Amino acid sequence: MLKTASQSPGVLSRPQLSASLAGLLREWLPKQRWYAGKGRPVTELAVLSATELYPGCLHLLVRTGHTGQSDDCYQLLLGVREQLPPRLRHAFIGRPDTGPLTGLSVYDALLDPWSATLLLERLRVPGVAGPLRFERDARTVVPGGLTPRLFDGEQSNTSLVYGDAFILKLFRRVQHGVNPDLEVPRALARGGCDRVPAAVAWFGTTEPRPMTLGVLQPFLRDATDGWTLALRSLAEGDDFSAESYELGRATAEVHGALARAFGTGPVDPRGGELLAAAMTERLENAARQVAGLAPHMARLKAAYRTVAAGGPGRPAQRIHGDLHLGQVLRAGQRWFVIDFEGEPARPLSERRHAQSPVRDVAGMLRSFDYAAHARPPRQAGWVRRCRDAYCAGYAAQAPWDPRAEAGLLRAYETDRAVYEALYEARHRPDWLPVPMAAIARLAEES
After folding, report:
1. N or C: which end of the chain has fewer CB within 10 A?
2. Are residues 241 and 205 in the same domain?
3. Are 277 and 329 in contact (CB under 8 A)?
4. Looking at the 3D structure of the chain, how many domains does it have?
5. In the chain, what's the furthest Cα-to-Cα distance?
6. What is the pLDDT of residues 323-381, one digit of tens each?
7. Domain final residue, candidates 175, 200, 218
């Protein structure tokens, strides 16, 4: 459709496509909820990789530049038609006025059921399309003809549900290397851990550098996420302790499976000192952007120094990295853990590092607090009972009790709250009082 005689099949001219699409995408990208550069205009845009997956559908990797910020790389699936039917008007991006796409309608192909269906067909049959590599677990059969729908529950990526049987997560902001959301489920499945849905199929690219682009997993159709269940408990005045206890057990079980699959790191005698230094650096960086942190700096740094004096702490291992109530699902009487991508704002290499499991525990404890703030007035008793039950459930499954690591747990909670404050200041200012209230409380306790 768009390739020239000198090009490999399916691979398109990047400079020509950059000329056609740069103006449209500079306006469209900042409006997408998964766009990481909120409040920052796109000053530069270039197509790094372009592949025609099938006639009328382009797979792109684009690099965006922002004044004073490092570049980002995004994955796009764009449809191209002469005329856009009324059913796809909501997906319309624009009509280029230059280059090979001049005058054609360009739209978000992930909102087109036809394109979504063809994408699943690519995953069903392993193969190659230009630099793209499609792979599948030979033990699982993915049937054809599954009806696609857009999953509306994610912020930093885009997911498609097929026939309520499988869910495909497409990573929007992509980085060099293997994404943990592929690496971890595959490793845990090999080890027999069924708390994490296994990877059924996946695809990635070799250009401009090797990257994971998408993962297909079983869809737990009757499951409800922990955030929804917690808010329901608060709204109805129900106790959430039993659910929290079982969630703690599930977390410890996954941590044990991760330690077996990836091993544990040696205990570093300077571990506490290095951790405190990293937390202090993150606090100072956040304080330059969130003015409300300044009054609490001295006490928070003192709490971090306590960690430095407390020794190396627990052995490092692979963890979830961004554990909260939205990353767990309850189906029947069982909890499942999903989304091992880690905190999207952190470099991919950092998200794959071995870390203390206390960090995951702290993330879930902070999530109970978030849920309570979402249903004002904050029910301190509900939060306290959830925290205690979660830690008790963890201790019942693991050979250690998070409550015995009080200083380290408080430091990780503080570090998480600082991250939350920075995130909310950038993306959801109305939610900023939630982490700021926690920071004030943690500073007082320290």
Report:
1. N
2. no
3. no
4. 3
5. 70
6. 999 999 999 999 999 999 988 778 888 889 999 999 999 999 999 999 999 988 989 99
7. 218
